[in-house]
Structures are given as C-alpha cells and as structure tokens.
Amino acid sequence: MSEFAEVLEALRRVRGINPFFALDVGRPDETWLPGTALLDGPALKTTIDAIATRYKAEEPRVAASLFFLSYTARLLSPLTAANIPIDVRPENLWWHYDIANGLSVRIDLPRLGPPVPEALEPVVKAIQRVTPVARGLLWGNAMSNIAGALKMVVRARMLTAEEAEQRGTELMSAPPFEQAGEFIPFPGEVTFRRRSCCLYYRVAAGGKCGDCPLVK
C-alpha cells in the first residue's frame, strides 16, 4: 500500500468514532488559511482575541489555552486512533475559525510526517510569542486530548483499556509529555488526571474538566 493510500485508509477507518476523529483532506475554499499563517502574521492573535471575546475570557492566556485545546483535539484525536504519524505540521494544514462554528482544521496532503511533538512545537512557540502562557499547560492540553481520544478508542472497541493505557504511558515517558499527568487504573476504562489546568474554569460559565488536577 502506498503512503497516500495508507493515510487515507487510516483516516477513513477512524472518522466514524465521533466528529473530532473526522480529519478531512485537500485544499478547501478561500475562507481557510494555510497552517503557516499560525506562525507568522496577525491571524493567530486575531483568533485568540476572538476566542477571548466569545468565551468572555478576561485573561489572554485563557483564550490561548482554549485555542490550543481545540487545535490539538481536532488533530490528535484522529492521529491517536489511527496510530500512524500523519503529517500535521503547519505547512501541511489548512485552518479556519469563526465565532459560530469555532476552529476547523484539515490536512493538505495525505502523507506521513514527524512525531507529534515535532509537528506541534512550532505552534506552541508561536502561541507563546503572542500570549504569555505556560509551556507545560499547552502540552498538558495536548496530552489531555490524547488521553480523551484513547478513552473513545476503547469505547469503540478498537483497543482494550490496558492497551490504550500502555500506549499513553509510553508516550509520557519522553518530553514534552513526561510531566503531563498520569493514568489512574480503572477496570475497562481509560482514566487520566493531568498535572496542569487548562484554565477553562476561568471563563464565564466555565467549569472544571474531568481530568483537571483541581478536582478533588
């Protein structure tokens, strides 16, 4: 099977789990921006400001966290389920944000790429240039989405809970995820507790997530 076909088949196989696992391929219409617009120019700050307005977030770091939480959910859910290194570097992405529908992402070409940390690192750095926000918080958001994806993969009966937890634990054995959290043993289920907080509780009508370290 060619690389092109392998990636398309992997994405097709997982897209039915739920909408977060549906990662589309190909160039969209002119309302979308190339992924590289996240790294240079005003688009990233404009989007973070729009998120702050939408959620009535008074602290810029809260809106920055919510952006990266949404960004990584839409990329890492299908990648985690597919379990192959699909290329999600900014140069192979398109993205779009609007107040009504939030953030959408898609890949340009169905090809393999580097590991997740390498693919996401430029965006982490770009966010930190725009808004002072802790690096550990951003990578905690990414790991939280990976753990959430593993939970859904188990519920879809694509992995056992033990297999999913082992995959997540192996990922957290190396930077930048080694301080992200821990998996808590629970029969038949993936249960994760992160070490940082995504700050969602600081927005109007917000609350604490199920894996939040502030939940007692």
Query: Which geometry do the CA atoms define?
Result: globular
Q: Using DSSP, what is the number of strands? A: 5
Strand content: 5-15%
Spatially, the strands of the biggest sheet line up as: 1-2-3
Please work out how many helical segments DSSP would assign.
6
Kindly, what is the distance between the CA atoms of the first and last residues, rounded to a whole number of angstroms? 49 Å
What's the main sheet like? Answer: 3 strands, antiparallel
- Helix content percent band: 40-55%
Mean pLDDT: 94
Oligomeric organization of the protein chains: single chain
Question: Helix-strand pattern, N to C?
Answer: HEHHEEHHHEE
Radius of gyration: 17 Å
Helix/strand-derived category reads: mainly alpha
Characteristic key phrases:
globular
Descriptive overview:
This protein is mainly alpha-helical. 44% of the residues lie in helices and 9% in strands. It has a three-stranded antiparallel sheet with strand order 1-2-3, with helices on one face. The protein has a two-stranded antiparallel sheet with strand order 4-5. The longest helix has 23 residues, at 60-82. The chain is globular, with a radius of gyration of 17 Å. The model has no long low-confidence stretch (mean pLDDT 94).
